[in-house]
Amino acid sequence: MKRLILATALTLLFSLTAQSSSANELLIWDKLQGTAPKGYVLLMRHSYAPGVGDPDNFKLNDCSTQRNLSDVGRQDAKDVGEWLKRREIKIFRVETSRWCRAKETAQLLGLGKVRLNKNLDSLFEEADALNHPQTAAVRKQI
Fold first, then answer.
1. Would strands 91-96 and 40-44 be described as parallel, antiparallel, or unpaired?
2. pLDDT on residue 12
3. Alpha helix locations (H) across 33-121?
4. Cα angle vertex 137, ends 126, 80, to 5°?
5. Is the dihedral of CA 137, 138, 141, 142 positive or negative?
6. pTM given for the model
7. In the predicted model, what is the mean pLDDT of the chain?
8. Low-confidence residues of the chain, pLDDT below 70?
9. What is 5-141's CATH number, 1.10.10, 1.20.120, 3.40.50, 3.40.1620?
């Protein structure tokens, strides 16, 4: 069975709230309600993690070496999860990168299974991220 994959930008996800949604945004979300039998797969980046990039001593499996979510970022992730639940958007799975800030955001959404997807890993230092093989792999998945 085909799964519909919902890909959405961090800027959209974390700007949406029940209080400040425009009419166009509401129409988009209304179309998503109940249209995927198993639910959508949400491709997730991360909430607010102060700074840019990662420290020089970055290690993928050591969160203490990474730029991590702030308390505001953690609350935002929880709020977005609650917002999606209130909108009754059925999420089958959340896919995210292997970076700690992304994993934590995905878990804090509280929407279900979280799957790590290396194709969603950071391309921050890549000169041409739009034409990178990782980007092509995500496009193919979508």
1. parallel
2. 37
3. 71-86, 100-109
4. 85
5. negative
6. 0.73
7. 79
8. 1-37
9. 3.40.50
